[in-house]
Amino acid sequence: MGFLDRLHRKILILWMLLVCASLLCLLTFATIWYIWNDLQGDKLRSTEPAGRVLAVAQSTGLFTRALVETDLGFYSLTDGASLAKAENLSLQTRGNGARFLCDSHQRCMRLNESLDWHRPKPGTVTEPEQLPQPAGARP
After folding, report:
1. Which of 80, 81, 83, 75 is nearest to 65 (CA)?
2. Which of 31, 35, 38 is nearest to 97 (CA)?
3. Phi/psi at 124 (5° precision)
4. Nearest to 118 by CA among 84, 83, 73
5. How far apart are CA 29 and CA 52, in angstroms?
6. CA gap 13, 8 in Å, rounded
7. Sheet-wide strand order for 44-59
8. CA dihedral of 39, 42, 46, 47, whole degrees rounded to 10
9. Which of 8, 26, 28, 32 has its CA 20 to 30 A from that of 107?
10. What DSSP string runs through 4-46?
11. What secondary structure letter does DSSP report for 72?
């Protein structure tokens, strides 16, 4: 074998060791992140009232989803729900940022991250007529 063949073999071995070490580091950090995120999910960051239940709509199919209507807003849940009418609900935010809708017995249901909606606080700008108009614009 020539010098270049031995050099190519050594470079290939080093490259494979580097790839394996990178994958091992990635796997280690992903595991640490998963465990840390799971631990942070147990810590309660904030709780606010979500109102009284007015209606619950279920959508079934491959995945069951629920839309809960309260007197303060609508909440889209990742799973189906069984709630009594006029039951007080609370909205909990956990340490990892996950949000849960909880009933009076502290049974909590995770909110669908992309579809949850909460009625804005009084005094916030929500209607187009409340937005400031540029100078010279007609009302």
Report:
1. 80
2. 38
3. -85, 155
4. 73
5. 42
6. 9
7. 73-77, 65-70, 44-59, 88-94, 99-102, 108-110
8. 160
9. 32
10. HHHHHHHHHHHHHHHHHHHHHHHHHHHHHHHHHHHHHTTSEEE
11. T
Q: Rounded to an integer, what distance in angstroms lies between the CA atom of residue 69 and that of residue 80?
A: 14
Q: Which residue has the tokens 């940022």?
A: 97
The 10s digit of each residue's pLDDT in 16-74 is 999 999 999 999 999 988 887 777 667 788 889 989 999 888 887 787 888 889 988 88
The Cα–Cα gap between 67 and 111 comes to: 10
Structure tokens, 61:
């199919």
pLDDT in tens, 124-133: 544 444 444 4
Burial class (CB in 10 A: 0-12, 13-18, 19+), 84: exposed
Sign of CA dihedral 124, 130, 131, 134: negative
The predicted-structure confidence for 83-122, as pLDDT tens digits, reads as follows 888 889 999 988 878 889 998 888 888 888 765 455 555 5
Q: Which amino acid is at 37?
A: N
Strands 73-77 and 88-94: unpaired
